Amino acid sequence: MLDFYLLIPCYNNTDGLIRSLLSVEYSKEKYKVLVVDDGSNIPVSLSELPEVLLQKQTIEIIRLSENKGITEALNTGLRLILDRNDSLYTARLDCGDTCTPDRFTKQISFLSVNTDVALVGSLCLFVDHKKNIRFVYKAAEHRYAILKQMHLKCSFIHPTVIFRNEIIKNTKLYPYDYPYAEDYAFFFELTKKYKTHIIQEILVETQIDTNGISVKKRQQQIRSKINIIRFYGINKSLTCRGLVRQYLLALLPYKLITQIKHLFFHIEK
């Protein structure tokens, strides 16, 4: 039985995929990397990956015939993982994002000890090297604080998480109803039903991408977040606060929000 699959969707970003995989450290026999090529213009192939990666990791690539979006890419990979039933957990990472060397050791150890926790994440460092922007995405630690915070923002940064496969068999996959915010809905549902946790250490670094979904599809993403808060909110007070926050964010430019985060949550190198 494997400890986990590392699920990575990829679309036209082989360089980012390589950078991410080079940061992963864990015993080769205890995990596998599953890359879902979401219809890249040039198919992702093992021949394009450095030999050092192929020596230290077991990497499998499955390809979608056309670009179907991240939700379908994630669910395609997750269905395969669950069907195989040969791993305890599924971990996530996005192309271009990197892990600390001890990320998976710490998260697997935590889940092994805390058997009632279904989902664990970590703090995340956001970086824009060109603009010298560095800030930490702060998040609550324990379940009920997380559940409260989820009305205001998604406490879990997607590439920091790892979750129990047994739990996912008894719940839903990533929902298709919330474009560009499928992870928010997925984590909100898990947090309502099960115990979740966020390790208060920076275990992942993610690149601020001005061409990414959170920028290019921002208004659609905010609309999805509004619908998620309305559907998953646990009481009127928290739901109203969350909705007001999203409406205010919709009025502010992304660049300004990034600068504010850098000002208040900046961390030195």
UniProtKB/TrEMBL annotation:
Signal sequence segment: none
Superkingdom of source: Bacteria
Keyword terms, alphabetized: Glycosyltransferase, Transferase
InterPro entries tied to this protein: Glyco_trans_2-like, Glycosyltransf_2, Nucleotide-diphossugar_trans
Single GO MF descriptor: glycosyltransferase activity
Glycosyltransferase 2-like domain: residues covered: 7-137
Protein name in UniProt: Glycosyltransferase
Organism: Lacibacter sediminis
